[in-house]
Amino acid sequence: MNLLEVKNITVKFGGLTAVSDFSLSLKKGEIVGLIGPNGAGKTTAFNAITGIYKPTSGGINFGGKDITRMQPDKITKLGIARTFQNIRLFSNLSVLENVLVAHHLRLKSSFAAAMLRLPGYLREERAMRKEAEELLGGLALSRFMDEKAGSLPYGQQRRLEIARALATHPKILLLDEPAAGMNPKESHELMEFIEEIRDKFDLSIFMIEHHMQVVMGICERILVLDHGVTIAEGSPEDIQGNQKVIEAYLGVETDA
Amino acid sequence: MKSTAKILLSIAAILLFFVFLYWAQKNLDPYKVRILNLCAINIILTLSLNLTNGFTGLFSLGTAGFMAVGAYVSALLTMPYDIKTMNFFMVPINPVLAELHAPFIAALILAGIVSTVVGFLIGAPVLKLKGDYLAIATLGFGEIISVVFTNTQTITNGALGLKGIPQYTILYWSWGTAVIVIIGLMMLLNSSYGRAFKAIREDETAAQAMGINLFYHKLLSFSISAFIAGIGGALLGNLISTIDPTMFRFSLTYQILLMVVLGGMGSITGSVISASIMTVIMELLRAVESPMNLGFISLPGIPGMRMVVFSALLIAVALFMRRGIMGEKEFSWDMLFGKGAGRRESA
Ligand SMILES: Nc1ncnc2c1ncn2[C@@H]1O[C@H](COP(=O)(O)OP(=O)(O)OP(=O)(O)O)[C@@H](O)[C@H]1O
Ligand SMILES: [Mg+2]
């Protein structure tokens, strides 16, 4: 069964159709890529899936639930987490706090219990701290734990954003250009890292990438957007040889 | 330093402070005691506003309105029957209200609760929307409440206001409340809910994407803030013993906002320091409004001069000290005794 089923969604901003008739099905454990030139509508498709924009038409189904018009926080609670193209950490909070915030959605204690430090709350707080510290340790971020998130080097900020998303316990992880601003070697390492977390956390991953080469290695399937329209879908080999894709990418290809 | 040592040190400091208050209440002249009371009340009000504006990233301007609600609730609950009927000589008081009476502690808590309900009613529709509609709504609320209180004569005695409110606000009440508010807010803000508030302040979209229900947490923060401001207003009413609707105008909110900004948005200890200092400065500045004789020249008193100086201060803060006295930092014992030893323990 498909975990995520996006059916023919269209997103319009006034007269501009940013995404038109977009469909996607994602199975458990899959890594699927979404590529396309600047302004193709990739981020908009993400925003529609995560509830930030409401699609003009079409529907989105996740694990048997219709999430088309749900609030973003509800969607995250159900199990879809994301990162942002232009990193959006809580800059003035510490690295550890950034991850702890992502645990808040599972907190059972009321605000009064939290404020009064009742035993039930303290137990929850201890458990989330332990888990957060382990997660940061696993992502080689332990030594930054008490630093402000905004003061981290760029690469670590990207990692922290992924850590924070993982802390919500997602079933699906959406990554918006995680390799942006990285050199080929760093991108390659990142892709290995993404495969690793897919296996470790039992995830399905849907990721946006600007450059085809970066995702060729790890994506089982790739979708190509151009001017909001899905111009191709298939295995990396199919996409690479696709005439329409080459045309859409002409001029972009050179700086890849 | 060990965290148990820090807690003991804090308890000791608080006890010492209350010994001072005990002495002050008996030995200082009423004027100085009044300033000390005002310090505590301004701390309470500044913290109330800092919770929304500094910690949650909401822009509320409702402080004076919530104070008005709290002050009237407490006044009506603590004034004796005779004084109430004496006050309402133009239009008689609503008979149910005339009979109502409660001890001061209950009056304070009820003042907070009624203020919370009002806050909830304003906040619920507005906080659903994205964007800074809260500023506009709370600004309107502050102005509307004084019009409403002027016209609900059987409840508030209209423009005549209330006189002879029992002066129950002594140092133990004002500072006792201030200490409870300080500790309560520190515990709240260091909890998971506090982290959620700060996350919303840092980046609303990202906070929501991490599963935080924006509406619930904003409304929670705003309601708690209204609760505290209501109690602050009640303490003020029972301190100065005379209240009327014109007292609770925007300029009052503006003063509190200045204290928040000066102390540092998002710093509890900053608010405590700036509210204390500003209260004293405001009193000293009364001098600039009275005629002055400098020996060689005498200046006439200029009414309203205090607010001019006050505003100049705000501009200076905005220009040169944008992050206030404390920024987002907190005073801590580690800071006092030098860092090093137990840095990681702050977590
Ligand atoms: N909130 C919005 N309001 C109006 N137009 C928007 C909005 N968001 C995106 N757009 C427009 O929709 C189109 C698609 O933008 P989108 O950000 O989805 O592209 P993208 O494929 O992610 O591009 P990039 O590779 O640059 O990130 C663009 O023309 C953009 O200007
Ligand atoms: Mg994009």
Describe it:
The complex is a heterodimer of chains A (256) and B (347). Chain A is α/β, with parallel strands linked by helices and 256 residues long. Chain A has one domain: 3-Layer(aba) Sandwich (Rossmann fold), CATH 3.40.50. Chain A is 38% helix and 25% strand. Chain A is built from ten helices and ten strands. In chain A, the strands form two sheets. Chain A has a six-stranded mixed β-sheet with strand order 6-7-8-3-9-10, with helices on both faces. Chain A has a four-stranded antiparallel β-sheet with strand order 2-1-4-5, covered by helices on one side. Chain A is globular and about 60 Å long. Chain B is mostly helical. Chain B starts with a helix and ends in an 11-residue tail after the last helix. The complex binds adenosine-5'-triphosphate and magnesium ion (MG). The site of adenosine-5'-triphosphate (ATP) has 13 residues of chain A, from strand 2 and helix 1.
Indicate the mean pLDDT of chain A. Answer: 92
Report helical residue fraction of chain B: over 70%
In the CATH scheme, the class of chain B would be: Mainly Alpha
Alpha-beta content class of chain A: alpha/beta
Q: What does the oligomeric state look like here?
A: heterodimer
Number of domains of chain B: 1
Biggest sheet overview of chain B: 2 strands, antiparallel
Q: Tally the structural domains of chain A.
A: 1
Reading off the top of the CATH hierarchy, the class of chain A is best stated as Alpha Beta
CATH fold annotation of chain A: Rossmann fold
Under the CATH scheme, the architecture of chain A is 3-Layer(aba) Sandwich
H/E element string of chain B? HHHHHHHHEHHHHEHHHEEHH
Shape of chain A: globular
Q: Pick out the low-confidence regions of chain A.
A: none
In what range is the share of β-strand residues of chain B? under 5%
Per DSSP, the total helix count of chain A is: 10
